[in-house]
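Researcher: We're teaching a course module on how sequence relates to structure. For the next exercise, students receive a sequence and then see the predicted structure as tokens, so they can try to spot secondary structure elements on their own. Here is the exercise chain.
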Amino acid sequence: MMTPVKRVNRFFMLLTAPFIGLLIGLLWIQPPLDLQLHVDQFSPVQGPVKETSLIKQELIQAQAAAAYTIDSVSASAKLYKATTSEMNQIVNTAETQASRPQIIYNRRISVKLGIPSEVVSSDRIVIELFQLNPGNYKAYALKIKLKDASAATMSLADAVSGAETTMRAVSRSGAIAGINAGGFADKDGKRYPLSTTVVGGQYLNGFESSFKDLSFVGLNKNGQLIGGKFYSREQLDQLEPQFGATFVPVLLKDSMKMPIPEKWKLSPKRAPRTVMGKYKDDQLLILVADGYNENGSSGATLEELQDKLFNMGVIDAYNLDGGGSSSLIFNGRVVNKPSDGNLRPVPTNFLFFK
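Model: And here is the predicted structure for the students to work with:
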């Protein structure tokens, strides 16, 4: 028989059983609450202040690092600028030193010509015009520095007669200067270039071996003066001629005076002359001597021009067609005084362009 106490206890157990079961279920499904975490959230600890202090320190360190980087970059920039400036000075000095021998040499050869009466200069060419009065004759000189090989060429007359004046060749081509070139022969009312002639790198009428003291003179593809006697095409081809014509004789070769044929010493002795030579730095020197006629009483002898060129330091030189053919055109005018009274039409002319 159940006592009143037991009945009371059973009543309370039945009354609390649902709540106990609910509590057990909650504990089974969720982990125990971290009471300490919740307590810390509401505890007056120093976390935020400490974090702020750390951030401030990091900012100070970052600022210091940035300042150091800026100083380093600035120092590097200054060093680079200083180094670049020094290198530029070294390069300029080296270029100046390298060009000094050329400048000195140019002064040395120019002083023998005197003061130029006229100068034309561009990025392609420098031409200086001089007047020479050695005593026995009057002449004009062109000293030409080719910076671009294409600033020089040789024209071939395209007229029906096969000839044109140097002025005509200069005018129709737009050249700044021109001189008569090789010799010629007349046949059937037409004028033909004498012997081997090269125009634009091509042989006009094939190659003809040198004969009767004839010599070829022209420029190669690099704008350097070439010439002499050639007995085979292969021999001339080795010099890569770009253009050139033929006449007689050779005056200087490798800084040595060449023997002048007796015929050319006397027929005529004096005459208007056109000669072309080069210095060792490949500058060109052209002399055109005036003469009043072709009977041998006025103008220059070949020996006089040979000596003049030799004394001026020219290393190679060649005589071109002379007499009434001698002509010098510069800056739109006829510089010399042609012995015919007028310019003579010729088949070939050396031309120079600004």
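Model: If you want an answer key for the exercise: Residues 143 and 285 are 5 Å apart (CA to CA). DSSP finds seven helices and 20 strands in the chain.
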